[in-house]
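pasting for ref
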Amino acid sequence: MGAARRFRAKRLECVRFTGAFRFMVTAQLRREQAASSNRRAAGFVLLTVLVVVLLSSMLAASVLYAMRSEATAHMASVHREQAWTTAMSGVARALALASEPGLEQEAWHDNPAAFQHQFVSQDGDDQWFFTVYSASDSLGADVRFGLTDESAKLSVLHHDPAWLAQLPSFPAALAVTAPPTGPTASLEEWSAAAGLNPRWLFGEDTNYNLRLDPNEDDGDARLPLDDANGLLDRGLQSYLTTVSYDLNVNHEGRPRVNLNDANADLGRCGLPQATLDYLAALRRAGQSLPHPAALLEAAGEFTDAQGAPPASSRA
C-alpha cells in the first residue's frame, strides 16, 4: 500500500511536471512566434519605408533636373535674345549712318570708331558689343570695319547671264545658263540652283569669315586647297549679289536704250538726225559705241547704205 501510494505520488508529480513543461514549451513557442511575427512586421515596414524614400528621392531628383533644365533653357533664350538685340543694334547703326545726307565714303567704308567693338549693354557680368566688318579692299589685308556697296556688284537675278562670262574664273559652261527667275535669299541658293561649285563662289574663304586663316594659306597641307601666296582668294562672291541692283531706267523711270542694239528704236530718244545717221553708219561698218559719251564730238568716214565711197559723218 505504501509503495503504491508513493508510485502514484511520483507519477502524479511526473504528470504535473510534464504538464508544466508542456505549458512552458507552449508559452515559449508562442513568444517566439510572436517575436517572429513582430520581426516580419518590422521588416515589412522597413522595406516599405525604403521604397517610399527611394521613390521620393527619384521624384526630387526629377524635379531638380527639370528646374535646372528650365533655368538653363531660360538663360540660353535670354542670351539668344540679347545677342539678337545687339546684332540689330549694329544694323541700326549702319542704317542710320548710311542714310545721312552728304555722307563721305570714309564714314561708312572704313570707320572703326563707329563700327568696331561698340558697347551696347551690360547684364551683370555680361557685356554686349557689336562689330560691323566687311571684306578688305586688299587681298592680303585684314577686314575693314565698314559697309559694302552691294549695288556695285552684279545682280545674278536682274542681269543678262552672259555678263557672268566677263567675271574672272567664271566657268564658261555656266556663263550662258540662265539663273533662277524666282526670289533667291542668298548666293548659296543661287549657286546651288545654277550648278556652281562652292569653290568658285567662295574661293579659298570656305568658312566665309572674310579673313585669311592659317589653313587657307598652307598649300595642300589642309583643306581648302590654296596657293599659299599670302593672299585670300574670295572667289566670285566679291562680284555677285542677290540683294541689290540698279534698274535699267533713266531719271524719268523709262527704260534705257542700248545705242548699239540694231533693233532699238532710236527715234524715240529725241536724238538729232545727225546723231542717228552717225549711229546707223557705225552699225553698217560693224562698229559699236564704247560709251554714250563717245558721241560728243564724234566724227568718222563711212560708206552709205549703197556702198558708195566713204563720206564724212559727225554725230
